Amino acid sequence: MEQPPLEDEPAHTSEPTDEEQIMYKDPNEPEKTDEYFNKERDRYLRLFAEFDNYRRRTIKEREELIATAGKDILSAMLPIVDDFDRALVELSKTADENTLEGVKLIYNKLINTLKSKGLERMDVAPNDVFDSEIHDAITLIPAPSPEYKGRIVDVVQAGYKLGDKVIRFPKVVVAQ
Predict the structure, then answer these.
(1) Backbone φ, ψ for residue 168 (5° rounding)
(2) Residues paired with 172 in a beta bridge
(3) Does the pTM of the predicted model rise above 0.85?
(4) If 91 and its partner were Cys, which of 8, 44, 95, 147 is the partner (CB 3.0–4.6 Å)?
């Protein structure tokens, strides 16, 4: 059975760590204390900067998530808006005025509700310059004259943005 250490003997025989040496050092050695203080200060500042970056990143991610929370539902509504657009064109040709006005009221209500949720239609018109970053070219046709080269001839399907993000690119026909 081992005996406990005597009062005269140290409790452990391992060497003291650098921090213990600095904490229990000779007061005539200020450079070691300053070195320890600078290391701890640097460690604290780095840890604080990491936490601040984490906090900013999570706030930004949360804002983006809130802004685009309804993206799936709004994207699912776009074919319905397209059907309404086609129905309005056909009803203006054949239906009576009261039916057309009723459908227009429903359409406007739907469009205003989608706009209130952040959805907006991208303005693309024939004769605009084609930009592959924001347009989706589905067909290329020969240009009737050189000034029409690289221009949009027809808009087949409208594009939509949710905030700053494009959720559906406009599908266009381009003159080549």
Answers:
(1) -150, 120
(2) 137, 155
(3) no
(4) 95
